[in-house]
Design a protein that fits this description.
The chain is α/β, with parallel strands linked by helices. It has eleven helices and ten strands. The chain folds into two domains: about 10-115, Tetrapyrrole methylase, N-terminal domain (Cobalt-precorrin-4 Transmethylase, domain 1, 3-Layer(aba) Sandwich), CATH 3.40.1010; about 115-220, Tetrapyrrole methylase, C-terminal domain (Methyltransferase, Cobalt-precorrin-4 Transmethylase, Domain 2), CATH 3.30.950. It binds S-adenosylmethionine (SAM). S-adenosylmethionine (SAM) binds near residues 86, 162 and 216.
Length: about 250
């Protein structure tokens, strides 16, 4: 009896929206797949590769049913299922739910450029000095707000993914009410990489009362994060510890 094909699925990051930010490999995987599961926004940057395939389109009302239907189809036909996700699939993209739905599949994740990376680049900050908080995902928004404040108080930059329920304006207002300095620098990137992109560089208090689309990432730039001088000092300490001979010669 011929061996049956393994069940295979690939979660593919397609970048923040522009087709130019889709990696050639992501495009290749999606072109190879025969079954596609995604939201309208996930398919936008790869529309050209999706044409002619069996597409299970997700929306707010049917996303669970659409997932089940795509999984059933992949099991029945044993064809490759691709799940394009805007940005990176490991960031606020329902990864755990997908992994649960894909039990029995060999699952691969192909990373993509996240909106968070783009926003950090515009804000000129280190991601490893930042806390990333998604208000888009499930979970208790109040607890997330407290975590955000805690990270800010500990000297981290804060990068938040907006949601229809918590946009940059109310978030800034809440942070100020909790004692964050009103003149803290902030950046809001909306519709990043898309033709309607806007970048607002301002201060926290100027975000209050201002309207932003939910497709926005906010960076609150923490003045307490290590400065260039501190970075240099730390680098010298590390270097001297690891190269004691050179350090002695320099003294
Ligand atoms: C469901 S999450 C997906 C995040 C995505 N996986 C990523 O890596 O960027 C949707 C949220 O991501 C952010 N987002 C995604 N694409 C964006 C873009 N092009 N411009 C600004 N924000 C974006 C917004 O905060 C939006 O509410």
């Amino acid at each position: 009896m011929p061996a049956r094909n393994k069940l295979k699925a690939v979660l593919v990051g397609v970048g923040p929206g522009a087709s130019t930010l889709v990696t050639p490999e992501a495009r290749e995987i999606i072109s190879r797949a025969e079954i596609i599961l995604g939201w309208d926004m996930d398919l936008l940057p790869v529309r050209d590769c999706v044409a002619g395939k069996k597409v299970f389109l997700q929306d707010v009302r049917n996303y669970v049913q659409a997932t089940r239907a795509a999984v059933r189809e992949a099991k029945r036909t044993r064809k490759l299922l691709a799940v394009p996700r805007v940005g990176d699939p490991c960031l606020s993209s329902g990864l755990k739910g997908l992994m649960r739905a894909l039990v029995g599949f060999e699952v691969q994740i192909h990373p993509g450029i996240s909106s968070v990376q783009l926003a950090a680049a515009y804000a000129c900050i280190n991601l490893d000095e930042s806390a990333i908080i998604s208000f888009h995902d499930l979970g208790d928004p109040e607890e997330k707000k407290r975590y955000m404040l805690d990270c800010f108080r500990k000297g981290r930059h804060v990068i938040t993914l907006a949601s229809p329920d918590l946009r940059p304006g109310p978030m800034a207002k809440w942070l100020i009410q909790q004692g964050a300095p009103a003149d803290t620098d902030a950046l809001v990137g909306s519709a990043l990489s898309l033709p309607e992109q806007t970048i607002v560089r301002t201060q926290l208090f100027r975000l209050v009362g201002r309207e932003f689309p939910w497709l926005s990432v906010t960076v609150v730039i923490n003045p307490g994060a290590p400065s260039l001088d501190q970075d240099h000092r730390l680098w010298c300490q590390w270097h001297n510890r690891n190269n004691p001979k050179q350090a002695r010669r320099r003294r």
